[in-house]
């Protein structure tokens, strides 16, 4: 547009000047080396205008040709891109349908022409993993890692696949590296939570739970459940490493709220019993049962190996006196009487326990007590009840 206006301006000026100086064309002499060119001013002006017009026209032709070439090339590129996207979409559908072989072929067929080849390589890696082809999976992940801004996507894909393959150590290494690079990524934190549980890394699990709660990755109920699981596992770990003294020291350092949790008290007591600290375990369980009726803790009492079981018997008798319907206390006392070979008393308390609730173990103990009293038919009847309970 500018060039057209420019030409009209030049023509206008030429017409104006030509009108003003008609009949006075002037004289122009151009000398180059041994050559001379003579012309009138009017001729020179017309020549210049014609030259400019020719140059502008030539520029237009060249641009037109270049534009046509570019449009032609662009048309082919867009066509390849559209085809690549179509194959990728079809590959994703095949992956979801479980046709992993065709999914891999679809996404890789035109991956080089896709505007996001990273997506193609990750889908191909997933398809190869689902087919159990580890070599291809690694090749696709390597190609994916060569793409721009691929660190997080490739790392998460690799970690998820390692977790599904139960390669938890590899997943831990990868996720730990990613966590250092992307500390605020909630998906990384959630995957680490599962890996910590599988590898029994209890302290890291305890440390990560508050962050998962703040990010709403888990609700309070889940957080409490994982916290108890982690502390329970940590108690077992410390017991194995430091023995009963280290276990007691760790228990004393826990917050009061945790020390009131029945499941943790049970774990703590079991670890003490396993390390022959039975009297310490009895003291812990007794103090809790004085305040709360926890069936799981009553069940631990018969497992304790005390040289003098009289205090334990007296404690259970007082519990029953306070609550005659305490089935767990009747069961524990019945088991203790079996150890003392006091079969009639064992029978009495086990029958009272079973009158309140059905329990396979109590049926087995009762059958044993009856057999030792030569009540064989009654013992068989009780055994059939236990078998029925197991099958139901």
Automatic annotation (TrEMBL):
Q: Which UniProt keywords apply?
A: Cell inner membrane, Cell membrane, Membrane, Porphyrin biosynthesis, TPR repeat, Transmembrane, Transmembrane helix
A Pfam family: TPR_19
Topology relative to the membrane: Multi-pass membrane protein
Chief localization: membrane
HemY N-terminal domain location is 26-132
> Where is this gene product found?
Cell inner membrane
Which superkingdom heads the taxonomic lineage of this protein's source? Bacteria
Outline the TPR repeats, range by range: 327-360
Q: Where are the transmembrane segments?
A: 40-62
* Pathway it works in: Porphyrin-containing compound metabolism; protoheme biosynthesis
What InterPro entries does its record include? Heme_biosyn_assoc_TPR_pro, HemY_N, TPR-like_helical_dom_sf, TPR_rpt
What does this chain do?
A: Involved in a late step of protoheme IX synthesis.
The name this protein goes by in its record: Heme biosynthesis HemY N-terminal domain-containing protein
Q: Which organism is it from?
A: Vibrio agarivorans
